[in-house]
């Protein structure tokens, strides 16, 4: 079974090449769970402190509708996580009277998944909440959330963080959130971010007074994986990750129509927030209200193989914040950026070197004779190396396969073929489609390496 996503107003069904057709077989491998217990639709709370749950248990959610669900004090192990999934049909959860449709409170080593029925791509549907669709907090760590459809939340689709507490708990150094794995979800039509992972104020501390205490610094996250999600029509940023100190990876997501509430600093496609280092690659970002990707400059960030279409300001923007890694790099490689209102890449990050290499930037305002500065710009003392990029004002000159259908693979005769420098050893050895880039000759520019048709 294939699920084709037809985007209203685009006048077409998106193509496989653009990454917008999702195979149900890929999303839902239909594991044969051996359920250890079933929560009936009228049971809204499972608290391991009152009703002990053992590591490795598989908890089935009875199909049907319930206003909310609270999962509390559930603790599996790395080898034997607790699994909560739909059992034999679709589970619908939501109410305008609850702060969170699903609240996960003080849980660890668990998996919340909607893959319990082989006939359903998203077996858990969260359809309404005053605040969050799914809220995971209060020292929750080491978890996986997948195969959920979430919409109608007043704020975030999934909020995954534990904020500082006035008693000194959950501040930096006392708690670390490990292994946050969010994948194969469809989050759309929410008032805030689709994914809000980690606190926003790593550098300066939470800007509110909590029980008379101010300046509390939020906990770090280690091991964040946000991938293969579909994000559509968000009030704020599409995906926001903060405080992810190491091992953070945001990849293969489709993100479109973000920042619709037009709130300042809340309008990007993907935000790599304060305190975050890692990779952002293989994403398709369409119609971000401002920047396609924004980075807040901790450093040691690698952004590659992304396709960014119609960003309201810049394709990619970077500045810096206190606590940046001295000399930490910003590497922007092999991206395809179409029709940015301003620049392909704008950086105000002076904490370390900024590199913009092997990228395509296309926009009607770009002058082919205007130099690389028309595609990338540095300001406020930032150091920028911009080389081997292609910038054009006319998209047809690049000979993309089908740009009207968001297919930006290269075809024969494209000026991007063999126009780049070889970046072997920089962890960009594959293109957006998984094709290998040559290790010993010039690479193609942009997110895709040209593949000659079979003879």
**Bulk shape:** globular
Mean pLDDT: 90
Q: Could you please say which CATH topology applies here?
A: Pectate Lyase C-like
Radius of gyration: 22 Å
- At CATH level 2, the architecture is 3 Solenoid
Low-confidence stretches: 1-27
Instruction: Tally the helices.
Output: 1
Instruction: Please write the CATH class name.
Output: Mainly Beta
Counted beta strands? 41
What is the strand arrangement across the widest sheet?
Answer: 3-5-8-11-14-17-20-23-26-29-32-35-38
- What is the makeup of the main sheet? 13 strands, parallel
Domain count: the total is 1
State the separation between the terminal residues, measured CA to CA: 31 Å
Lay out the secondary structure.
Blueprint: E1 2-4, E2 21-23, H1 24-27, E3 37-39, E4 45-47, E5 58-61, E6 64-66, E7 69-72, E8 82-86, E9 91-94, E10 100-105, E11 108-113, E12 124-128, E13 132-137, E14 141-146, E15 148-151, E16 158-160, E17 176-183, E18 186-190, E19 195-197, E20 220-227, E21 230-234, E22 239-241, E23 244-251, E24 254-258, E25 270-272, E26 278-281, E27 284-288, E28 293-295, E29 301-304, E30 307-309, E31 316-318, E32 330-333, E33 336-338, E34 345-347, E35 354-357, E36 360-362, E37 376-378, E38 384-387, E39 390-392, E40 400-402, E41 407-410
Parallel strand pairs: 3-5, 4-7, 5-8, 6-9, 7-10, 8-11, 9-12, 10-13, 11-14, 12-15, 13-16, 14-17, 15-18, 16-19, 17-20, 18-21, 19-22, 20-23, 21-24, 22-25, 23-26, 24-27, 25-28, 26-29, 27-30, 28-31, 29-32, 30-33, 31-34, 32-35, 33-36, 34-37, 35-38, 36-39
Antiparallel strand pairs: 1-2, 40-41
């Amino acid at each position: 079974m294939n699920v084709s996503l037809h985007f209203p107003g685009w006048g077409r069904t998106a193509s496989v090449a653009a990454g917008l057709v999702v195979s149900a077989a890929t999303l839902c491998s239909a594991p044969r769970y051996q359920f250890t217990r079933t929560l009936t639709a009228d049971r809204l709370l499972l608290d391991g402190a009152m009703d002990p749950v053992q590591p490795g248990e598989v908890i089935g959610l009875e199909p049907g509708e319930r206003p909310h669900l609270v999962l509390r004090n559930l603790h599996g192990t790395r080898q034997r996580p607790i699994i909560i999934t739909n059992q034999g049909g679709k589970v619908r959860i939501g109410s305008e009277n609850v702060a969170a449709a699903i609240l996960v409170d003080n849980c660890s080593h668990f998996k919340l998944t909607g893959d319990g029925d082989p006939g359903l791509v998203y077996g858990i549907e969260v359809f309404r909440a005053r605040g969050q669709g799914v809220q995971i907090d209060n020292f929750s760590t080491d978890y996986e959330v997948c195969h959920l459809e979430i919409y109608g939340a007043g704020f975030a689709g999934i909020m995954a963080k534990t904020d500082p507490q006035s008693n000194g708990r959950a501040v930096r150094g006392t708690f670390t959130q490990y292994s946050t794995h969010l994948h194969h979800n469809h989050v759309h039509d929410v008032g805030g971010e689709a994914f809000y992972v980690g606190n926003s104020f790593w550098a300066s501390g939470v800007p509110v007074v909590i029980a008379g205490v101010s300046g509390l610094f939020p906990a770090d996250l280690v091991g964040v994986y946000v991938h293969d999600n579909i994000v559509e029509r968000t009030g704020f940023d599409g995906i926001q990750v903060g405080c992810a100190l190491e091992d953070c990876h945001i990849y293969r997501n489709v993100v479109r129509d973000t920042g619709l509430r037009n709130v300042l600093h809340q309008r990007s496609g993907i935000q790599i927030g304060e305190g975050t280092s890692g990779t952002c690659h293989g994403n398709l970002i369409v119609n971000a209200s401002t920047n396609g990707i924004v980075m807040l400059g901790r450093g040691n960030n690698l952004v590659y193989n992304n396709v960014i279409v119609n960003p309201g300001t810049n394709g990619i923007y970077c500045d810096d914040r206190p606590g940046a890694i001295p000399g930490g790099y910003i590497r922007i490689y092999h991206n395809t950026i179409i029709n940015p209102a301003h620049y392909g890449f704008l950086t105000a990050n002076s904490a370390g070197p900024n590199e913009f290499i092997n990228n395509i930037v296309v926009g009607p305002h770009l002058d082919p004779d205007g130099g690389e500065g028309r595609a990338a710009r540095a300001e406020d003392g930032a150091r920028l190396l911009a080389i081997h990029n292609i910038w054009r004002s006319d998209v047809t000159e690049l000979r993309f396969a089908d740009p009207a259908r968001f297919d930006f693979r290269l075809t024969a005769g494209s000026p991007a073929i063999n126009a780049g420098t070889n970046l072997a050893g920089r962890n960009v050895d594959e293109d957006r489609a998984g094709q290998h880039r040559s290790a010993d000759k010039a690479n193609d520019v942009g997110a895709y390496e040209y593949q000659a048709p079979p003879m």
